[in-house]
Design brief:
The strands form 2 sheets. The protein has a 7-stranded mixed sheet, with helices on both faces. A 3-stranded antiparallel sheet has the order 1-3-2. α11 links the parallel β7 and β8. The protein is elongated. It has about 325 residues and is α/β, with parallel strands linked by helices. About 40% of the residues lie in helices and about 15% in strands. The longest helix has 25 residues. It contains 13 helices and 10 strands.
Length: about 325
């Protein structure tokens, strides 16, 4: 381990803390020792940029580094700081407010650590790191997702609302009795139909319509899924109420599943992709479901993919009791 402080230690240390990104890095590096590549994955920055930030923090005396094989790991260890630096960091750390950015950092960190654990288990396992490749070669990459779909009642009718190019409808096809793929874009529906191909005749139906006015009869589906659509809707609570109109509560159904972005501050999404909302907090989603007449939703943050560039995602599932006003 090495720590290097050049020039005036206090000036260097305070100067290194002047950059918001470096502050966020230090916050995580106090929580977990990370390699340069792992820090780059969390912050979605080039490794060269991350290396410069870490070098600045290291020279100012904030970080220790440890070499393991070809990787260099960095960390902020409070006990390794001298009294003055420790006092400064405790004060600064207390001023770092929770925000959408820090929440996203935490989600991406969890994803990086999960991938590290998987890599470690794969490496030290009986077949080393080869099992995933062997399994994919023998059975294909989608076998796990398709296998888990066997948990879904095969007699259900499921609406894929805002189906886009049909990735969810494609997985559901053949696993449930009927899939109704809905999108307001004719182009998307054509792409979904082409993707699913001949299976469309075996239980997949395509309909054009908006989330606010679904082309479905009352109580006609057992479950509805809505993937990365709700943030495009002006009034999400109204949309959830419209979904509830289509659900039936018998046979264990009446389930709505929403996957969308956690609240974030990427305002360019409004301009570039027409987003009406910059994600949702768990509290917002819970309130919208309950106001639409559902039971309390189960909400889970989805593990972050280290290479994913978008905000973190959540999955929220809730049952509609089948009692309508």
């Amino acid at each position: 381990m090495a720590r290097q402080v050049n020039g005036n230690a206090l000036t260097d240390r305070l100067g290194a803390l002047s950059d918001p990104t470096r502050l966020r890095m230090l916050r995580l590096l106090e929580m977990q020792e990370l390699s340069v590549g792992e820090v780059a994955s969390v912050f979605q920055l080039p490794q060269s940029t991350v290396s410069r930030h870490l070098s600045t923090l290291g020279k100012a005396g904030w970080l220790v580094k440890r070499q393991f094989g070809t990787a260099t790991y960095h960390s902020l260890t409070l006990d390794d700081l001298d009294d003055e630096a420790r006092a400064v960091w405790i004060v600064v750390r207390a001023q770092i407010e929770r925000s959408d950015e820090t929440d996203e950092d935490d989600r991406r960190l969890a994803g990086v650590l999960a991938e590290r654990k998987t890599d470690s288990l794969s490496f030290f396992g009986r077949v080393g790191g080869e099992w995933d490749a062997i399994r994919n070669e023998l059975f294909g990459e989608r076998i796990t997702a398709l296998g888990l779909l066997s948990l879904v009642d095969p007699g259900w009718t499921v609406a894929d609302i805002g189906c886009g190019t049909g990735n969810a409808a494609e997985l559901l096809a053949g696993c449930v009795e009927r899939v109704i793929a809905i999108d307001q874009s004719e182009t998307m529906l054509e792409a979904a139909s082409k993707r699913i191909g001949a299976r469309a005749a075996g239980g997949v139906e395509f309909k054009r319509g908006s989330l606010e006015s679904l082309p479905l009869d009352d109580g006609s589906v057992d479950a509805a899924c809505c993937f990365l659509v709700l943030h495009h809707v002006e009034e999400p609570a109204v949309a959830l109420r419209e979904i509830s109109r289509t659900l039936r509560g018998d046979r264990g159904g009446g389930v709505a599943l929403v996957i969308d972005m956690n609240r974030h501050d990427r305002h360019e999404y409004r301009r570039e992709m027409g987003h009406k909302h910059l994600g949702f907090s768990h509290e917002q989603i819970e309130t919208m479901f309950e106001e639409a007449g559902y039971g309390r939703p189960l909400i889970r943050d989805l593990p972050g993919e280290p290479d994913a560039k978008g905000p973190g995602l959540f999955a929220a599932a809730a049952r509609f009791p089948g009692v309508r006003d």
